[in-house]
C-alpha cells in the first residue's frame, strides 16, 4: 500500500516540468461549454442518521516537523478545526537519533543503554513534540514504534537509519529500526515508563483521551519479522501501557490495506489467542485500524485518479474488522486514507496534489466512506489523512501535504468545510451523484460526480456540502446546480452563506502560478499567497417559496467544492 505505482515513475519523464493541474489551466472549449444542469433536493425535516466527524485525524512519517516553524503553524490550523478533538499520528517516535528530520524519518532518542546494558530514558524530544500538539488543540494518536537501536534485533552490520530519498526504491527504507526487540521485557518496560511519564506530565485524564497503537503496516514494508513476532511485540507494548494506565485506549494494528491473512491472524490472536506478555486469553482492544489507498495512473497526458481502488480497500477493511462478533462493535479508524501511497514522492506526476483535484477527491471520497460505514454497520470513528507538510522544500513540489512553506493548499480548506458540517445528517439527493456501487466498481470515468451531503448544525442551521469531481484531471464544463429546500419550519431567508474551494477561490496554487511560479517569493508575494489561500465568505441568493420551501442556484466549476449554510429551521 506504500509503494507508488511504477507507471508514475515513468510518467514523470513524459510530463517533464509541467507543474500545473490540467483542470486548472485555461481551456477555451471547456470555458465555452454549456453548464451541466444538476438538481439537488434537501429535506430539512427528514433526519438521515448521524454524520460522525471522522475527518479530524491526520498524520506524517516525520515527527520532528511538528516542532518546526511551518509545522507549528499548520498544527495550529488543524487544532482550530475542532479544538481538543483533532488527532495526529506519527511514525518514528521511538527511533534513536538526534531529532533531525528528513524524508520518511525522525527520531527522539527516547531510549539508549549504558555500556553494561542498563536502560537510559530521555523524554526531551518526544515531550517537545507532544507539548507542541497539545498547545495547539491537537492530541496524540500515539504510535509505539519504531525500534530503538539498542533494542533492535537486526543482524550485526545492519545500518540503523535509512538513506531513502525521493526517487529511491522502498527497499532503501528497511534498516535496523524495522526489527522486533531482542529483549521483550525491556520493550514492555519502555512503553510502561513512557506512559507513566506522560501521566505525570500531562495528567491521567488527558492521556486517557489518546489512542495507543503499535507499529505501522507490519504486514508490509515496515516489519522485518513474522506476523507472530509482531503479535508478540504488540502484546508486550500494550501490556506496558496498560500496566501504567489500565484505562488507556489501545488498539491496532494499522495494517497495510485491509490486512489479509495478517489481519485475520491479529483478530484471532487478540480475541482467542494466548497473550505473549501475560499468558491470558486475548489482548485488550479498544479500536481497530487499517489503511486504504487509491491508485492513480497516467493516461493520455494527464493523471487519472483511482478512487475506486481506494473505496474497495475501505470496504474490504470494513468487512474484515467486523468479521469477528466479539469485535464487530469496536470503533474503527482508517489509520491512513489517501489518494495514493507515497506522501514523500514529489514530482510533476503528482501536481494534482497542489490544486483542486486533491481537494475535490477528498470531498468525494469522504462522502463515500461515510456511506460505506453506514452500509456495513461500522462504528467508524476516524479517517486519517496521511498528509502534513515538508519543511523547507521547494514550493508546490507535489508532495502530499496540506501546506507548502507555511501556505495552505486547497485541500486544507475542504477540511475547514467539513468542520462546519453538523453531526445530524439530513436527507438529500443529487441527480448527478454517481451511485455508490458504480463508483466502487468503476470510479468516475463517464459523467462527473456532482454530489451532496446536508446536515443540521448544533446551532440549528442547515449546512450543505456540494462537490464536482471526476477521476480525470482535465478541464470540463461547470455544473449549474439548482437546489430545492423543503421542510423548512420557519420563514426562509433570502440569502445563505457560501464558501468555495476551486480554481479561483481559496487557492494559493493558482495565485502562485499567476505570479510566475517563483521558487523564492519575497515577503509581499508570500503575503499574497497566504491571502489567496483563505476562504472568503460569499452570499448565495435564496428564493423563498410556499409551504416551507426555498430554491437557490449555484454554479460549481469542475473540481470545485462548496458549502452552503442556510440559517433556516
Structural class: alpha/beta
**Total strands:** 24
C-alpha Rg (nearest Å):
24 Å
- Low-confidence parts: 1-19
Largest sheet: 10 strands, mixed
What's the overall average pLDDT, rounded? 93
* Oligomeric state of shown chains: single chain
Taken from the alpha-carbon principal axes, the silhouette is globular
Helix content bin: 25-40%
What amount of the residues lies in strands?
Answer: 15-25%
* CATH second-level architecture of the domain at 22-45 and 425-566: Sandwich
State the name of the first-level CATH class of the domain at 22-45 and 425-566: Mainly Beta
Superfamily (CATH H level) name of the domain at 22-45 and 425-566 = Glycosyl hydrolase domain, family 39
The CATH topology of the domain at 22-45 and 425-566:
Immunoglobulin-like
The number of helices is 14
Head-to-tail CA distance between termini: 45 Å
Largest beta sheet: strand ordering: 21-20-24-18-17-16-1-19-23-22
Family: Belongs to the glycosyl hydrolase 39 family.
Protein name: Beta-xylosidase
GO molecular function: hydrolase activity, hydrolyzing O-glycosyl compounds
GO biological process, one term: carbohydrate metabolic process
